[in-house]
Design goal:
By secondary structure, this protein is an alpha+beta fold. Helices cover about 35% and strands about 50% of the residues. It has a single domain, classed as Nuclear Transport Factor 2, Chain: A. The radius of gyration is 15 Å and the shape is globular.
């Protein structure tokens, strides 16, 4: 819970702070959206190694089941495959020159434990560049309500 509050505070401070990243938000946004797509593409090709390499060791993921760390998330995707996905309604907020948060509508067709399904969720992720490598440090998904 403490980590989630720290990340939420960082997001809020990023919204209130004019950073150097705001001078080139498109480039930063493009980098972070590309990393998020790379993570989803790794799930599409069942490349767990690449998926895991994109996640910080201290990352926190949150969904309807609660929060989980990197090891738990990686273990959950071993029998999960994205068949196709789309990212729509993408919004971006730079937090610094080397970090940002994206939020978007994720629609996916996937399979898990031999069962195919479709799902729509609202997702957000915080990406940070550490030692020249982009890593996801926080991710959250909320199932979309049917309208």
């Amino acid at each position: 819970m403490k980590t989630i509050l720290v990340v939420a505070t960082a997001v809020l401070l990023g919204l209130l702070t004019v950073s150097a990243a705001s001078r080139h938000p498109d480039s930063l946004q493009q980098q972070i959206v590309a990393k998020e797509r790379e993570e989803l593409d790794a799930l599409k090709t069942t490349d767990v190694r690449t998926f895991a390499a994109l996640i910080a060791d201290d990352a926190v993921f949150v969904d309807g089941r609660g929060s989980a760390g990197k090891a738990e998330v990686v273990s959950h995707v071993t029998d999960f495959k994205v068949l196709e996905y789309s990212m729509d309604e993408i919004r971006f907020v730079p937090l610094s020159e080397h970090s940002g948060v994206i939020a978007y509508k994720l629609t996916q067709r996937a399979s898990a434990h031999g069962h195919e399904f479709t799902a729509t969720a609202y997702a957000s992720a915080v990406w940070v560049e550490r030692a020249g490598k982009w890593l996801c440090v926080f991710s959250q998904e909320t199932s979309a309500r049917s309208q």
